[in-house]
Model the fold of this input.
Amino acid sequence: MSAHDADAIVVGGGLAGSAAAIAVAKAGLKTIHLSPSGPPDRRTSALMMPSVDYLRSAGLIDEPAALGHALTQIRIIDATNRLIRAPETLFDAREIDLPAFGWNFANARLLERFQTVAAGLPNLETRSASVTGLTGNTLTLSDGGSLSAPLIVGADGKKSLIRTEAGLRSHETEFAQSALVCDLDLGRPIGGASIEFHYPKGPFTLVPAGGTRANLVWIDDRDVLLAAKEGGPEQLIAKFREKSQRLFGTISMASPAFVFPLSTLSVDSAGTDGVVLVGEAAHAFPPIGAQGLNLGLRDVADLAAALEASDRQTSDWAIDVSRDYAKRRSSDLARTGGVVDTLFRSLLADMIPAQALRAGGLWALKLAPFLRRQAFAVGMGQR
Ligand SMILES: Cc1cc2nc3c(=O)[nH]c(=O)nc-3n(C[C@H](O)[C@H](O)[C@H](O)COP(=O)(O)OP(=O)(O)OC[C@H]3O[C@@H](n4cnc5c(N)ncnc54)[C@H](O)[C@@H]3O)c2cc1C
Done:
């Protein structure tokens, strides 16, 4: 009889952890998912077509239209009033012969769906305990118990305890900016267009959420956002109208506003000695170009591929899986992190050369079909 409680333990009940628990169980491993309950996730996620295709092929969703809203256009408006301004740029999914770039989902709805799928898997057990420590492949739990498994999947978010305890080195840079999110009802619908107003301190983005509803992601200095939130709904709405250049008629708030601190986080390696990291435990960056969860789902897809390629008859199979997984993830994590970081810094740059480069880049994207196609491929995370 095995000395372990399971073949794999997945730590963290966010979207990355829940998708990972399902993928690991579907690979045939006896799996325990530690998913302590927390406040509902108020964010929304724009998932690009390759991620949506993955969700479908992995049995995580059926029809995206049942859960989310199609993203057919991306409109970028330079609202910086800088000396060198970029042109207004419109990207349309039809240019790459697709009906949509992707779909926008409410995280809470997606999670509910994942939980339904998880409940149907007999070899996947979900528990609400959280982890307080990790020694070797044994986890100590908040309920006083302990659990062990050859493979530990850390999906416990940006402040990952699993990452620290496994000795996987990370680098985090905190920004002065935060993101304010809330749902808005607009006087004029935006159809399938995501509309980004680029301001010097960060973009103000409206993402389609069906009908007249839009999900707002407003990036600005944390103090500015907290002061705007403290001012109450009326002042906030006045600010939203100003920021959206009064293009959408009356605006009302359809949910409370929440402010998320922003940082970038990267790891030297996403796996070692039978421990692997997925989702924000392995990477985080500002919500620019909708990459975070898209990358998290690519982690899960690579974990499934590493499991499929492994020989579980060998005694060191989990160590081999963690090594193979780290190798599979390294270039995607480095490339995506680099692209988002450069993009974010170019949006905030005060230097004239950087502004010129950014404006020049958007002109090039506006005018050169080849460059547009390259940009689409990077933005959609095509490998
Ligand atoms: C404003 C905003 C907008 C975004 N928009 C997009 C977008 O449009 N597209 C996109 O792709 N991405 C987007 N992202 C990024 C995306 O939301 C995240 O990448 C994703 O939700 C992270 O999921 P996760 O499961 O890795 O982490 P989390 O959601 O942070 O989940 C971590 C989980 O681990 C649990 N946990 C923590 N510690 C322990 C412990 N010790 N024991 C057990 N459990 C533990 C927590 O309770 C939590 O449930 C956005 C992010 C923000 C902030």
